[in-house]
Design brief:
6 helices, binds FE2/S2 (inorganic) cluster, DNA polymerase, domain 1, Ubiquitin-like (UB roll), 5-stranded mixed β-sheet, alpha+beta, elongated, 5 strands
């Protein structure tokens, strides 16, 4: 499979941009929804078979700690690839336009929305889904969500756990404001966020009292 023509994996800055755009878009979407009611997602799924036949692209990457090589299409959305091709349904499908965070995964350690990722962008990358999120910190985050009741329907929870684990990796004892910023790209329709912030607080190293919102 020729690799020379494959688009290059974006640099770290580009990945952070994806998250920043997601967070900003989430806030903007919330405002639009409040002002004019629910919006219809309009981003189409990229065409899977471009003319049919065998998948033209070989994606080699590390998935949940395992080296994987799979045939696919370069523009195949990673959300679809994970859920439909690989059966990793812990990654949730919701808005599909980068505004809710339900589809969050870790790409080289950074949380990104898999609905905005194409397969070619993961070439050579290290990708972790909720199924593969392990370690002492992740265990603490999951336990804290259970202990604080940081979910109701649970649809946002995998994405939340991914984002909170990443937050605590970079900042073991975040403030309320830092937590709000880190979770700006994760939408929860059920909890009102209070129990989620308590879960973050419980899972943080300080385990102290998180300052209330302004
Ligand atoms: S499904 Fe909503 S951000 Fe990806
Ligand atoms: S618990 Fe239902 S959307 Fe968050």
């Amino acid at each position: 499979m020729p690799d020379n023509d494959s688009p290059k994996y974006p640099e770290g800055e580009a990945k952070l941009e994806i998250k920043r755009h997601s967070a900003a878009a989430s806030i903007q979407d919330e405002r639009i929804a409040e002002e004019s009611g629910p919006q219809e997602p309009s981003m189409p799924e990229p065409v899977k078979e471009e003319g049919g036949g065998e998948p033209p692209f070989e994606l080699t990457f590390r998935l949940n700690g395992e080296e994987r090589t799979i045939g696919t299409w370069p523009a195949r959305r990673m959300l679809t690839l994970l859920r439909e091709d690989l059966g990793l349904t812990g990654t949730k499908r919701s808005c599909e336009i980068g505004r809710c965070g339900a589809c969050m995964v870790l790409l080289d350690g950074e949380p990104v929305n898999s609905c905005l990722l194409s397969a070619y962008q993961c070439s050579g990358a290290d990708l972790v889904t909720i199924e593969g999120l392990q370690g002492e910190r992740a265990g603490r985050v999951k336990a804290a969500f259970l202990q604080e009741g940081g979910f109701q329907c649970g649809y946002c929870t995998p994405g939340m756990v991914i984002s909170v684990s990443s937050l605590l990796e970079h900042n073991p004892c975040p403030s309320r404001l830092e937590t709000e910023e880190a979770l700006a790209g994760n939408i929860c329709r059920c909890t009102g966020y209070g129990s989620i912030f308590r879960a973050v607080c419980r899972a943080s190293e300080g385990q102290g009292e998180m300052p209330p919102a302004e």
